[in-house]
Amino acid sequence: MAPLRNSRAAALPAKLSRSWLLASAASESNFAPALASEADSVVFDIEDAVPAPSKAEARERVVEALSTGMTAWVRVNGIETDYWADDLAALSRAPGLRGVMLAMTEKPEQVTHTAMRLQAGTPVLALVESALGIENATAIASAPGTFRLAFGVGDFRRDTGASDDPMALAYARAKLVVASRVGQLPGPIDGPTVGALGEDLLEACKVTASMGMTGKLCLRPEAADTINKGLSPSESEIQWAHELLDAHASGAVVGDGSYLPRLARAQKISSLADSYGLWNA
Question: Quick one: which residues bind substrate (predicted)?
Answer without folding.
Answer: 75, 129
